[in-house]
Design goal:
Elements: E1 5-9, H1 14-25, E2 34-38, H2 42-59, E3 64-68, H3 71-75, E4 80-83, H4 91-103, H5 116-132, E5 137-140, H6 145-155, E6 159-162, H7 169-176, E7 184-187, E8 190-191, E9 194-197, E10 199-202, E11 205-206, H8 208-225, H9 237-246, E12 249-251, H10 254-257, H11 266-273, H12 282-304, H13 310-314, H14 323-332, E13 336-343, E14 356-364, E15 367-370, H15 378-401, H16 404-412, H17 420-431
Parallel strand pairs: 1-2, 1-4, 2-3, 4-5, 5-6
Antiparallel strand pairs: 7-10, 8-9, 9-12, 10-11, 13-14, 14-15
Helix pairs in contact: 1-2, 2-12, 4-12, 5-6, 15-16, 16-17
Amino acid sequence: MSAVKVTIIGAGSVVFSLGLVKDLCLTGDLKGSEVCFMDINEERLDVITRLAQRYAEDLGSDLRFTSTLDRAESLQDADFVINTATITHNEYFMKRRREMAAEHGYFYGHTGMPEYHNLQLMLDVAKDVERICPEAWILQAGNPVFSGTTLMGRETEVKVCGLCHGHYGYHHVAKTIGLDPDKVTWQAPGLNHNIWLTHFFYEGQDAYPVLDRWIEENIQQYWEDHKTSGISAQLSPSAIMQYKLYGLFPIGDTPRSGGWWFHTDLETRARWYGAGGGGDTPEGRDRILKGKEEKYAKMKAAAYDVDVRPVTLFGDQKTREQHIPIIDALVNNNEYRAQVNVMNNGALAGVPDDVAVEVPALVNQVGIQPLRVEPLPNKILLECIYPSWLRMEQTLEALLSGDKSMMLYGVLESHQTRSFDQAMEMLEALVDIEPNEPMAYIEDIHDHYGWPDNWDL
């Protein structure tokens, strides 16, 4: 058993942080560890710190909790840095940005504008880690994981692993078609939010025929039964169409994205994701936001109300998040099979070594060891993986160069852009949008981005 210091950046994302606290409290081999919460929102920071202390009391866990508003202070002597902080993924900011995009003719914010602020934040954190605690692992939780992991891996020498829970989509598929997920053997490699079920076995037998039969016999009734409650994106018409297009089942967030043709307007969304268009619509995001507000209210009660105990509200079972099991495996050699986003280095054929891929990995005291997987079909490489890789490269070049015309190119490439002038107006509106509190992480965008010297239109 080994005690470590785990720093959580962006701990004010309390719903996610609560899961990390639960998993730490329920991992006996990490007893005596320190958890340092860091955020720029003092109220939320206090809520998660108090909640963690009370939850640890409920379970009798030997953990020490500290908190700070200062990032450099939080990184002192850290062994692991879990970065969940985002800027433009703040729900209220996202809503304001979507509404602005709609005013300029873009449905659900599909402007082609990458998450430059979030990427800059990731790079800043990585550089701080490199300077203050260079031996620490960064476990990247905030999006965009694909481009962010690649960026940090290229621009710093820190150890970086991006994590996402989308791969558990295989679990939903197996359970829905009548298979015990614990008896399933699977692989779903690719890029984050772009992964494909290359292996699907049940008790040693190929389970794809079972899936095919279930789709043929049951999918229409499944969609009808879930018309009111909501169709899971994992088994939506979009997912089934992508399966038909590519011959492998898309997993996790992959069906949520797919091609632009699934997202042109609300009517189209309803066709491919069920009545209401699923969670990635203004109404869907409002439901998610309301759910988060309700969860936060419960967490505040559990943090401050002496009559409310956290374990009563949130239970005593571990989550399925991978962060704490990976830490446990690295420091205590409790071997763990994970799904990780790390620099390729030959794990997935057809993708450069300095690009982050999502692949299975074995984790123990030796490190996070990605497994070499079989190549993806050429059709998936050409139509899904390479286009995503190219967009990532364009995004990172725009970020690092500060070339505003490359930012414009991303908007021009959006399939909802109808003219050059529309794209220019949208870009300027996005750049000039009034910042909210999370923007305090980043210097003013105008200090870095500018037009090329010969730009004169």
